[in-house]
Amino acid sequence: MASSRKSRRSDLERRVAAELARRVPRGARLTLALSGGVDSIAALDLLARLAPEHPFALDCLHVDHRISPNARAWARFARAAAARYGLRCTVRNVDLAPYRRLGLEGAARRARYAALARARSDFVVLAQHADDQAETVLLQLVRGAGTAGLAGMAPAGPPGKGGPVLLRPFLGASRAEIERYARGRGLEWVEDESNADERRARNLVRARVIPLLAELNPAAASNLARSAAHLAEAHELARALAGIDARTAMREGRLSAAALGRLPAARAKNLLRWAIAQAGIEAPSASRLDECLRQLATARGDAAVRLALDGAEVRRFRDGVWIVPEQSPPPRGYHAAWPGRRAWRVAELGGTLTFKATAGAGLAARALAAGPIEVRLRRGGERFRPDPRRPRRTLKALLQESGLPPWERERLPLVYAAGKLVAVPGIGIAAEAAARAGERGWAIAWTPDRSKLWQKPAKPMLK
Questions:
Q1: Could you tell me which of 255, 368, 264 has the C-alpha nearest to residue 316?
Q2: What structural domains and CATH numbers belong to the chain?
Q3: 39 near 175, Cβ under 8 Å?
Q4: Residue 141: helix, strand or coil by DSSP?
Q5: Which of 15, 16, 188, 434 could form a disulfide with 429 if both were Cys (CB 3.0 to 4.6 A apart)?
Q6: How far lies 176's CA from each of 10, 39, 132, 226, 339, in Å?
Q7: pLDDT in tens, 297-341
Q8: Which residue ranges of the chain lie beneath pLDDT 70?
Q9: Rounded (5°) CA angle 59-23-43
């Protein structure tokens, strides 16, 4: 455990206070990610001093990766450190197993950020600084990252949809400056023994690469951090250009494959990358993005395009580009009895079937009372008549005309009452089962899971 009793004032407090004043509204709740290392301990001391005058509410969160044999001791230290300021520190254990494919460092990072995203706070404060930013830029550079990766860590940004804002008010400070502050304040902190393990990429960059670059230019680390800020601006310009291109390339909320093909290659790639990011999917590699663009732009109009991304797929249906969840084939011969709930999540089909009471529209209540209600998948040969003025037709033809893409058709739940097909979400109600004027009925809708991936829920079926 390192410590010092000397006291020396730093202007770090003034600059961090200015950053908080710019980004944090008065009365907000902040949660500090408190590892117990010198950076987060200095941040704890500084934030605790600034909280009353800002003001903001402050607590701490310690993420235990359960990797080091000292992990429990670090958790106790973090709790005790927060308690000295009268603050609460929550310890959250994380499981790395779901992220093992990312390697130990990647898994720990992904699990840590997932834990931070669940914090019940307005902001999660991270004590990452300019040297961390320089290391991030170098690691991204050797991986061949684009502007998004080379922009490094943003001063502020959400970790995930609906989560607290990640705030990095120390990005303008160096590691040495933070350590001087900690010593000047007589603070104590813990040392993570893994920081000396040069088998870990970031430690190798910190121990060997940064010092070597400093021989070329003593300001190498701060210059790299400044370059990251320039690249962040370039990335924002690229995003803005994608937004402009999207205005003419989108059709009913989806990219037009034909419009993509008419754009210059660089702008088409930029727009497709933006669309994938808008769907909440990690950016694919450059080669994968090139192949995706090639297939979308050159495939025949009726060709099935399907390319796998991280947990999702890019598909083309007619002229539209769809970004949909990656799914296994639906269970063959699936059928299930309706449990009577108005919102029924059908996990096997990946969506929710909803029943909403209506009058003079939708599926007649008498049809529901006629016999057991169940859902089935299409098996072929079904015939259906949603329009009483037209003859019965094959369900296959009706689905093709509806514009539903093939992957949604294969998971679409068909509603049966007493063994008869009475409702098909997105198509309609069987004419003989539709509610008449003044009669009680039910509007039925099917909403696929993860609608954020540009899958729009089918409209409720009314008469």
A1: 255
A2: 2-226 (3.40.50.620), 252-325 (1.20.59), 335-453 (no CATH)
A3: yes
A4: helix
A5: 434
A6: 12, 10, 12, 17, 63
A7: 777 766 678 888 877 888 888 888 988 878 778 888 888 999 988
A8: 1-10, 158-162, 301-303, 450-463
A9: 40
